[in-house]
Amino acid sequence: MKLALKFNLILISVLLVGFAIAGIASYTILQNNAQKEILDRAKIMMEAAVAMRGYTVKEVRPLLKVQNKRNFLPQTVPAYAATQTFDRLRKKYPEYTYKEATLNPTNPRDRAIDWEHDIIQRFNNNSELTSLVGKRDTLLGKSLYFASPIKITNPACLSCHSTVDAAPASMIKLYGTANGFGWKLNEVVGAQIVTVPMELSIQQAHHAFVSFMSILAAIFVLIVIVLNLLLRSLVIKPIIEMANIANRMSQGEENLPEFNEKGKNEIAILGASFNRMKRSLEKAMSMLGA
Hints:
alpha+beta; Beta-Lactamase; 2 domains; four-stranded antiparallel sheet
């Protein structure tokens, strides 16, 4: 096996191993970063919903307190305000959702469906659980959901949701007496759930991975080409030249040119030794001939 072929087999094997390790590492890092970015986006949405709820309670509800007694205004309900705001967002970004899923809601649109019901039950079964993260398939692609429990910690909430008799007449007039009652203090009645699309971030991570690996492959090819050129000019060519001179000497040719030794590297040292051997052989042949 020729030296160049052996060198290339070893070099390509090492580069392929490095390429595989770099590919696995970069793919894992990019996918993890994409997942973290999606989760951060969901957390920001949740914080925005919490902020809207707080704004409604502290600044909107007091202004409409008198009107709310005559005619119940859903705009004074924190959940309604947050949901309406995100519904406006969904007109431009339909794949983003926010819902205050509730087991027994006053507003029927907030009623929890099957998978939301499971999330609420998990919060009920574990009082120390403050959030849940998961993935699910939707009509618009794979999505990540981030959920927080809706727990009745403020006794003021029970004025509307404990019994029909305690609820404001204006609210009963609007929503009726069938739903939204029987809530208890420190009970988890629902969950705030935001869903964020994953497809775009995952695709971007995939494209970044393909671009990185393409650049890395081009660099590896360039390394192979450059090293082969250097190997040929610095090692193989000088060795072939010495071999030709030695071969011609063995066939009895005389007055052959010496090997052109340059520099102080190993090939130059070998060339100097070769030239000394050549001169010694020529001197010995000359003495034998005499």
